[in-house]
Amino acid sequence: MSAARRAVLDRPPGPRAKGFWKILVKPKAKWVLHDTIASDAERKAATITIETHDVREVDGADVARLRWTHAVGKERNDIGGGALKPTQVAVTSAGVYLLNADMDDAKVSAALKGKPARSDPPKEYRGGKQNHGRYRRFEGGSTCMGEEPLPGDGPCADVCEAEVCISPTDGVISISGLAAPSYSTWSQ
Fold first, then answer.
1. Contact 21, 118 (CB under 8 A)
2. How far apart are the C-alpha atoms of 67 and 70, rounded to whole Å?
3. Where are the domains of the chain?
4. Confidence (pLDDT) at 156
5. Which of 73, 77, 145, 148 has a Cα-to-Cα distance from 133 of 20 to 30 A?
């Protein structure tokens, strides 16, 4: 585990501060994750890079597109998409809107009239039937969003969870399970 990830985990848990999501709209931000479980040299050398680009303001919200790239050797694949790996975000004082990169500013503006996907500051909640197993938990200084089997679903045959953890200072610090390539655990 990297020193940056360890520092985030060593921070005391507790309520998050306002402005938590601002890191996701920081111009030219770049976070590189490494497979922490890989055993062979090629997989150990693989990376997931998350970058902000096209940072701008729309109706008072800070907006950025996010590029999620999985690299193995010379091969590069876009792995962004969905609620856990949004390809565009908008951040307001109310929270973060998880959007798609193909949304133009008019569509972003329309989305901003609704409720944000995640509040600011973030709040913890457990997965259940009402939210289809989605949860948010605090891990040290970070917030982890994920999906897990519903209580009473029984045992899972293999990988059943997906999770992305974000730090307000270090950005995307980990991705794992169904959200990650080879269902592994990737972290800074």
1. yes
2. 10
3. 3-187
4. 76
5. 77
Most confident of 62-66, 70-74, 153-157: 62-66
Question: How far apart, in whole angstroms, are the C-alpha atoms of residue 74 and residue 76?
Answer: 7
pLDDT (0 to 100) of residue 33? 97
**Of the listed ranges 96-105, 148-157, 169-178, the one predicted with least confidence:** 148-157
Q: Considering only CA atoms, which of 4, 25, 8, 2 is closest in space to residue 144?
A: 8
Asked if 126 and 112 touch (Cβ cutoff 8 Å), the reply is no
Q: What is the amino acid identity at position 87?
A: T
Strands of 18-156 (E only): list them.
30-35, 47-58, 61-72, 75-78, 88-91, 95-99, 118-119, 134-139, 142-147
Residues in Cβ contact with 146 at an 8 Å cutoff, skipping those fewer than 6 apart: 84, 127, 134, 135, 136, 137, 161, 162, 163, 164, 177, 179
